Each structure stands twice: as C-alpha cells, then as structure tokens.
From TrEMBL:
Keywords: Signal. PANTHER family: LD33804P (PTHR45632). Gene3D superfamilies: Kelch-type beta propeller. The keyword Ubl conjugation does not apply. The lineage of its organism: Bacteria, Pseudomonadati, Bacteroidota, Flavobacteriia, Flavobacteriales. It comes from the Bacteria. Residues 1-31 form the signal peptide. The keyword Signal applies. Pfam families: Kelch_1. This is Galactose oxidase, central domain. InterPro entries: Kelch-typ_b-propeller, Kelch_1.
Length: 334
C-alpha cells in the first residue's frame, strides 16, 4: 500500500514537473518573439523639436523640414547623413510655413507640398535639388487643397492622395509627372476616405493603410502596382484577434523584403511597431520604439536601414532619433 502511494506521488510530481517545463518553454518562446527587434539612439535633431514635418530620403541621406513646434509653423530644412550620423541645415523651404505637408523623392530630387498654415489647407508644391541645395516651384496640385495626405514615388512618378480639405476627408489619388510638370487624376481606389495614412514600398509595390476618418480608425490595407496603376485589397489590419495595427499619423518604411508601421495615435500616442510579410500577407509585432511614444514623426530609409524620430506626445514636441534593427534581440542598454 505504501509503495503504491509512493508510486502515485512520484507520478504526480513527474507530471507537474513536465507541465512546468512545457509552460516555461512556451514563456521563453513568447518572450523571444516579443523582444525581437532593437532600437539604437542616433544623433539628436539639430533643429527645434517639432511634429508633422515633411520628409523624404535620397540614397543614404534623409531630409526633413516644415512642421509645427508648438508655437510656430516652420520653413527650415535639414539633411541627415545616415553613414556619418549628423545633421546639416539646408536651404529653407520657400513656401508658406506649414505642417502636415507631404514629401517624396524621385531620383535626386525631393518634392514637398500641400499642408496647413494654421488658417488654410494648401495646394502648392516645390522641388528640392539635393545636388545644388536649391528649391523651385512646380505646378500646384489642381484639386482641393489639403493636409495630412499621403504621397509616395514609383517608376519615376509621384503619387498623391487622401487627406482632408478641412470640410471633407478625401480618397482621390493623383499622379505627378516631373518631365511635363503635370498632375493627372487616377481612378480605381476602392478604399475608405482617410487622413493620416502611411505607406511603404517593397519590390516596387506600394503598400498603404491606416488613417482616420470622422473619428473612426481605418482598417483596410491595400497594395498599389505602379506598372498597372491598379489597387489590390489585402487582409484587413484587424484580420487577427491579436493585431493592434490600426492607427493614424504613423510612419511606414521598408527594410529588405519586409514593411513596417511604427508609432502613431489611436486614442493616445503609440510606440508599437508591426512588421508586414508581403508573401503571406501577415503581420508580426516587433519591439516597440524605445523612446517616448509619439505621433506624426518622420522616417528615413534607404531600403537597408531605417530611422524614426521627431513628432510629438501630447504637447511635448520631440527631437530624438533612433535606428531600428528588426532582426536583433532587444537590448535595453543600447
């Protein structure tokens, strides 16, 4: 009888130990997934802290300017050297001081336009020649002036759309041809109206989503093919129960064959980061931004490296910058 009781006790202890071991391994696996991705502090922005700045990247240089610093709308413009990790002030943006403008780059030229000057939404656009550090006016956007729009470049053209004109959120898209300095309206986007959306480009395809309209955060996600200038709807940003990607005023960037959405706002500022796999149309959570959570930051990327910084958290305007390493484990001592 005593021997039987001892065997039963030994069996119970064995099962308990096995269960603990399985739970421990599961916990370790969960921690590893959650901790994948690391942020490293880079050179603080030399200009005044601000949010809602325009930005674009040319090679290993990032450019940003305009924005709002809590008191004033800005026109100063800056270059960030990814290799040297330093900032250089460039020629001021020549248009009206503004925030919530867009930026994109075609070859060695950057383009900045639209936005808000504190009174009116704007439609004017300018091109920046990085080789000679000079600005020139180009054709105004021909439709309603707007702010918090979306812009990207592909196949030697600029694309611009969505945003708000102050009375109505928009969903139209337009193509800018730098060779003829003309705008042409495109048709075929079946998504929702929105402002504060974001995008990234992987293998010449542009992926677009997020944003807000009439107080509702937008869940649809789309792929734009520049070759056919057509849109394909992908899985929604709330496709899985554990997704928390929906937001506005975030930034998007690509590293290698993956896309990323970082920071933004959804009933409060966010620091979370999500990685998109275009092969399987799925998302994975990565280590969140290690600085203050923020909305309306800027991002620079050359396709192999990516940097996120500036923006605001409530009434706190920010000037810090960090670089993201998606395949490194989180290190709090960086």
């Amino acid at each position: 009888m005593r021997r039987t009781k001892k065997r039963n006790l030994d069996f119970i202890l064995y099962r308990a130990s096995l269960l603990f071991f399985v739970v421990f391994l599961a916990g370790c696996s969960s921690d590893d997934d959650e901790d994948m991705g690391n942020w490293k502090i880079r050179s603080v922005f030399d200009g005044k802290p601000r949010s809602s700045s325009a930005y674009f990247s040319i090679g290993n240089k990032g450019y940003t300017g305009t924005g709002y610093d809590g008191d004033n709308y800005r026109v100063d413009f800056w270059e960030y050297d990814m290799d040297g990790d330093y900032w250089v002030q460039k020629a001021d943006f020549p248009g009206t001081a503004r925030s919530a403008a867009v930026g994109f780059a075609i070859n060695n030229n950057g383009y900045v336009g639209s936005g808000y000057d504190g009174v009116n939404e704007l439609r004017d656009f300018y091109t920046y020649d990085a080789n000679v550090n000079s600005w020139s006016a180009i054709a105004d956007f021909p439709e309603n002036p707007r702010r918090e729009a979306l812009a990207f470049a592909a196949n030697g053209y600029g694309y611009f759309g969505t945003g708000t004109d102050g009375d109505n959120d928009r969903k139209d898209f337009w193509k800018y041809d730098p060779s003829s300095d003309t705008w042409t309206e495109l048709f075929g986007f079946g998504g929702d109206k929105r402002k504060g959306a974001t995008s990234f480009t992987i293998d010449d395809k542009v992926y677009m989503g997020t944003g807000v309209s009439n107080g509702v955060y937008i869940k649809d996600f789309w792929m734009f093919d520049p070759e056919t200038e057509s849109w394909t709807k992908l899985n929604s940003l709330d496709e899985e129960d554990d997704y928390s990607i929906v937001r506005s005023n975030a930034v998007g960037f690509a590293i290698g064959s993956y896309g990323y959405i970082a920071c933004g706002t959804a009933s409060g500022t966010l620091g979370s980061v999500w990685e998109y796999d275009p092969v399987y149309d799925i998302w994975e959570r990565k280590t969140g931004y290690e600085g203050t959570s923020r909305q309306s930051p800027v991002t620079f990327s050359n396709g192999a490296r990516a940097f996120v910084g500036l923006g605001r958290s409530g009434s706190l305007y920010l000037d810090d910058v960090q670089e993201f390493f998606p395949w490194e484990e989180y290190d709090e001592d960086d």
